[in-house]
Amino acid sequence: MGNRKDNKRSGAGHSGKGSSNSGPTSSGGQRSDSGSRGPGGAAGKRRPGSGTGAAGARYRGKPTGANRRPTSTPVLTLDEPVRLNRYIASSGTCSRREADDLINQGLIKLNGEVVSELGTKVSKGDRVMVNGKHIVPVDREYLLMNKPTDTITTTSDEKGRRSVMDLLDAQEYGTLGLFPVGRLDRHTTGALLLTNDGDLAHRLMHPSYVVSKQYLIETRDPVDEKQLTALQTGVELEDGIAKADRVSYADDASPTWLVMSLHEGRNRQVRRMLEALGNEVVKLDRVRYAGLTTEGIRKGRWRRLSRDEVAVLYRKVKL
Known about the structure:
Blueprint: H1 53-57, E1 82-83, H2 84-89, H3 96-104, E2 108-110, E3 113-114, E4 121-122, E5 128-130, E6 133-135, E7 142-147, H4 170-173, E8 179-180, E9 189-195, H5 198-205, E10 213-219, H6 225-233, E11 235-237, E12 240-242, E13 246-251, E14 254-262, H7 269-276, E15 281-289, E16 292-293, E17 302-304, H8 307-316
Parallel strand pairs: 9-15
Antiparallel strand pairs: 1-4, 2-3, 2-5, 5-6, 7-9, 7-17, 8-9, 10-14, 10-15, 11-12, 13-14, 15-16
């Protein structure tokens, strides 16, 4: 891993070099016009792998009507009865497995009666309550956001801090039950998936499906070859050994820029790994998540996934 020339820009997702995983397809390439509410995204100091070239230009024009098409399965029609856990998951409340847990806890009512059987089915005209709240299926939405800094990854915040949901158009997305898949800490930027597909979200976050996340990192101090090797072989953290799946220098000219890939999702893992080596993360940007990149999406903006991209995610987690 130590040869910096061999590892030059190993797939940071911005330069178009390195990883064989393809990024978002052009069919889903226009950003939503509702993204205009997000923060500016004006060009700042150039960093390794930050160029978008012609790809970025595709996102600057007026959005087309195609961007507003649903990208996956429409709302359940209930032409035939469906299992209760599927009905609950289709509302964006949780995954099917989590719905089964809610049923076992006696928190689900069907037409006013507490449900105790996991195989219970829902028919057209039935009324389902979860924790006292009436739910209905909604069209599934899949958005890829380039999260800006100073933004928390929750659906709301009791302290009044800006969340990623505040960046979305409330009129267009407020009733769809969207939520972020996993978390990026407040000052980490980059690729963040937002959806109301509980089953997909549950599997993407589950470690057994080994979903890869790639980060572009700027450190306070140069990282030497020995430390680079340590990041891949493992460093001791308070919650156990942590190691990168892959790590390399992002640019020949600067040992303070790294590209790191992980499949784990521990809290502040990248930052803590560098701290364990006596260093500090200055900037942290997730440039790739489950094969999706932020190329062409300005900070605070987003785009819908194409049908093909959603299908790839489903295959990754065996849905």
